[in-house]
Amino acid sequence: MRPSGRAPDQMRAITIEPNFTRHAEGSVLIGFGDTRVLVTASVEERLPPWLRGKGEGWVTAEYGMLPRATHTRGNREAAKGKQSGRTQEIQRLIGRSLRAVTDLKLLGERQITLDCDVIQADGGTRTASISGAWVALRMAIDGLINDGKLTADPIRHQVAAVSCGIYNGTPVLDLDYPEDSAADADANFVLLDNGTIAEAQATAEGACYDEEGLLRLLRLARIGCTDIFAAQKQAIGK
Amino acid sequence: MRPSGRAPDQMRAITIEPNFTRHAEGSVLIGFGDTRVLVTASVEERLPPWLRGKGEGWVTAEYGMLPRATHTRGNREAAKGKQSGRTQEIQRLIGRSLRAVTDLKLLGERQITLDCDVIQADGGTRTASISGAWVALRMAIDGLINDGKLTADPIRHQVAAVSCGIYNGTPVLDLDYPEDSAADADANFVLLDNGTIAEAQATAEGACYDEEGLLRLLRLARIGCTDIFAAQKQAIGK
Amino acid sequence: MRPSGRAPDQMRAITIEPNFTRHAEGSVLIGFGDTRVLVTASVEERLPPWLRGKGEGWVTAEYGMLPRATHTRGNREAAKGKQSGRTQEIQRLIGRSLRAVTDLKLLGERQITLDCDVIQADGGTRTASISGAWVALRMAIDGLINDGKLTADPIRHQVAAVSCGIYNGTPVLDLDYPEDSAADADANFVLLDNGTIAEAQATAEGACYDEEGLLRLLRLARIGCTDIFAAQKQAIGK
Amino acid sequence: MRPSGRAPDQMRAITIEPNFTRHAEGSVLIGFGDTRVLVTASVEERLPPWLRGKGEGWVTAEYGMLPRATHTRGNREAAKGKQSGRTQEIQRLIGRSLRAVTDLKLLGERQITLDCDVIQADGGTRTASISGAWVALRMAIDGLINDGKLTADPIRHQVAAVSCGIYNGTPVLDLDYPEDSAADADANFVLLDNGTIAEAQATAEGACYDEEGLLRLLRLARIGCTDIFAAQKQAIGK
Amino acid sequence: MRPSGRAPDQMRAITIEPNFTRHAEGSVLIGFGDTRVLVTASVEERLPPWLRGKGEGWVTAEYGMLPRATHTRGNREAAKGKQSGRTQEIQRLIGRSLRAVTDLKLLGERQITLDCDVIQADGGTRTASISGAWVALRMAIDGLINDGKLTADPIRHQVAAVSCGIYNGTPVLDLDYPEDSAADADANFVLLDNGTIAEAQATAEGACYDEEGLLRLLRLARIGCTDIFAAQKQAIGK
Amino acid sequence: MRPSGRAPDQMRAITIEPNFTRHAEGSVLIGFGDTRVLVTASVEERLPPWLRGKGEGWVTAEYGMLPRATHTRGNREAAKGKQSGRTQEIQRLIGRSLRAVTDLKLLGERQITLDCDVIQADGGTRTASISGAWVALRMAIDGLINDGKLTADPIRHQVAAVSCGIYNGTPVLDLDYPEDSAADADANFVLLDNGTIAEAQATAEGACYDEEGLLRLLRLARIGCTDIFAAQKQAIGK
After folding, report:
1. With an 8 Å Cβ cutoff, are A88 and D88 in contact?
2. E85 and F85: CB-CB below 8 Å?
3. Prediction ipTM score
4. Annotated binding-site positions of B
5. Interatomic CA distance for residues F10 and F226, integer angstroms
6. pLDDT, tens digit, for every residue of E166-204?
7. Subunit contact E91:F100, Cβ cutoff 8 A
8. Which of A149, B190, D231, F213 is 20–30 Å from D23 (CA)?
9. Which residues of D touch A97 (CB under 8 A)?
10. Full 3-state SS string of F79-91
């Protein structure tokens, strides 16, 4: 039995509240159960120097966790003066995932930054970030299209992400914190709406897993992402 | 005329949503109009080394602004590797303001950290932070009292803060961003519910002001804080 | 009684030694009693990138305290790798105060940096810094005028600053260290020679103060600044 | 055709030179073709404070790339003052991989640090690091056993890692730099000698991949790791 | 001819003003011509953790240059967030030089820090720092002896330092800035009052020098240090 | 007797293995006994901004020590976030030494960086670095000449360095670690093949030394450098 009483292939409630803040070109508050992440998409009409002059744009991400998003207060990274390895790993993953569905040439020489700030953490903050970032990016790009700055849509697919793991010997979907901290294996899958895989990461925390285990986790992820794709569509009104 | 159409002595709508997040011992989302700050109070039963052994506790604050809380995206301080002078100045002010109403001896050897994170900025983020932090602190201390960890209440007063300024020659209450960026003088007052002043800061941005101007700003602040004190009480159910 | 035996409205001896060092365009060693601050004004004929092209100049300040300016040795900020929040708060205040009396358009596209380094500390280092910085700035601008680089004088007023506080229940002028560390309230006023106020900051350290208290502190500050304005004039030979 | 002329399932030459340096408790220079990594294992008989008192030890890793290990010189991370996100991601992966085969309780309250420094880079530096780190760890633990400090062997398995990718539409084993920089997908697998998986990471760089693609990459990795396990055994004389 | 008109073996005026500041246990303002360095000695009755428990003390130094000590303003190291290589090199030299004349066992488990802050620079700041630091150290140790905290004098010798160089082909003593920036060789010698050498550093800036050149520089340094030893004695009233 | 049984004027075995890595324009692994340093020379056809436009090039050096190059593991400077004072002092010395034999005008507007990374340390790492750096520089410049990018050779001399010290009262050549940690004086000489001196540094660690001692150390250094010059020539095939 899962601590939450969920079935092994059951997602937590997915909530996506668009326009949670008003200044950003795209903004959502996404929830996977008690995990809540504020994602904003910021469009800048210029690129950092090392990306200029290639006739294409860039999509990047930054990730942060508010100090008391967690059960016990963590140190503020701005006060410590550096981002942890975990933070950097996550924001690199978010950026790659969104670039996997974006045609950077069609985007043109502009940068879109996806800021993912965890308001409340209960497992799955990086997968909620990716899933919410797609909505924020979609909103920002719709804005560029509406403003006539883009004529062709650079977004080729939906992208979503979900965590899976082996908990008490059973593969389960969408780990919450109690499961995450006790799982034998912890995986994150980033999937496209055409069924292909942008990123698969599966880490043994206790006993190592086998090929069959990896495939069962992937199949759970497909179930979860189907739900997320639907929630994303609803959030953007389609 | 003010850009928002408000009367000179009119506050923006004050909204205080308690328990906005669930892990912290106290938590509110406070709004002064479009300015929204998430404040959490975290109780730790130990002090940093330099504060130990004095038989008293500590109340401190940290402040941050999400990168896209503002009209244009600002750099993430965690990524830059340091907090700006402005950030440090604000978080020092918040900490002092809350300590002004707390009996640290009664608090005992524990630390309460008030994290103030600006979700959306439209002027007055530091005063909203202070005003919300009092509610979060109140909730955290009520928890300690309910748990039997405190027998006497260390909070001696309510504290609230509001900005005032001289805009187009007229003293006005609770500056929003368009006023703040054009005001001749910009003041922040931190007041107690007994009418005394914990902190007064009044800075000329354009023409310098005189004693009468300072007093008129203070009197506006009293009007605003009366509203905030009422909203604080309502938020804690009193 | 004050520890120094001074009357409540009595400044410490004000000493201003111009040309204390020889390389800077302006330089003074200012003393308020045992507090001694070396202030230099450095003129640079170029602006940092973010200030260029607006047809105006910039006046800024940096502040530092030699490690053994104080009773016990403090850490060297350069060795720690960052400036404290207190340092940043003070240098921002100094910069604002001097800009309050400078016409940046008349200054032209150049930058003047006021370096305030505390040689010996006995309370009031920030107010001595501001008061001395005006003299150093005056000297530097006189140099620009003499060299024909400026035809109109960009300095519109004298500016001076002094601390006041409530010590043992009595408002007193120009706190020294024993008073500063025991005062109930601690205020800094930055005043212009026309009687207007550039900055007022009054912080309760113990009991909070009331409007009457604030006004009495301001009136003491006027007395102190009158003395400082005279000493500034004498230092520049007027 | 692969640029190197290798068959799709062909590893580069694996070279493991034990005792490359003399101070460390374990030391190897491992080569996967032209990629060469110096790995040392350092035993410290004390743990960092946050790991003490749990009756178990710790295995961790640090990773670095000499500035001119690469085709063009990269900045020295020590001079820049921080480790890149890539570096941190890699060293976290190495540490997890080695802990996956170590019984930390049997290790006792000591720490073993695996320093992986890339002398020359031609793709696969993280997988060579993991594969070499196992040998260095084995040597260090053999030393502890020989010295009578350990009575039971805390190493439960061999662990090895190899990269695979989809290059020109074909899944290939052990990417070198020309392949790595042009591959559509880039995967790293960390495998145990009992056939289980400690870590799988597969990232689409161009077109996303499907389940069959993931499995084909995994099967290539099994082929490569079989070779590496043999080379590890030979290096430790078994 | 030297720019200053001095003879090749002629020191600039040496001025040592003891008790320049009042909080430190020892304090001097030392001048070599226009070079002026404020040196304070701070006694702390505890050692940093890594020096404790050896039954001996420590003498260390820190060095800084005020931003406008030089002809053009340099960046403030505290603002840049790190000390330059030059700064670190100099403060390590000062520390070694003073430890060369101090019996650390006799000093007991306490630390003396020599802060050398350059008020005005005209060449020779490191040698003036060492020469002044000896006087400050002497004063601090005399204080410890007078307070009965030391019964035996841990200072075994006087130590002084001076720069020499080859300027326009001629070996000259005590380089000022115009000479220093144009010299072919630049040397610093740290000498004891018994004629022995604590440190010799001679660097070719243009043409390399030979053994005879090195010896001639050393002989000039002996002449200069004789003058400095006399000035040190006079400063401490002997 | 020396711990190693060497005669006082006897160098350790000098080994220079050219082309140790393949990407750099010049590369050697140099050994002085058990000390082994990997030196690479990297040519960049552009200068950092502050060196541009003078019609000349730049030669600079960086130095690092792998964490377990030493008997006990040292902290990784990249992880600590700064280079130690010792590291900076050494890399400044290496850079100066190589510039002493290079005609920067003939080099043209390009930069050569010498990265010296200590693989294994047993005393003399900075002198081995300098001696190896000359070979790497020679190789890089030969490459520029062969490519027709240089027509005149900017290298004017060979440069080599060696340490000497007073160990148990006897001047000895080329200190290894046991000698280095116990010597009364520790000197490093950087010599040119024409017999002149680029840099002399002699530091008393215990008893101070006299002029005769300094000369005896210098003469030992000449013996050592003669051997190193021969090994350098052999390494470049002359």
Report:
1. yes
2. yes
3. 0.94
4. 86, 124-126
5. 12
6. 999 999 999 999 999 999 999 999 999 999 999 999 999
7. no
8. D231
9. none
10. HHCCCCHHHHHHH
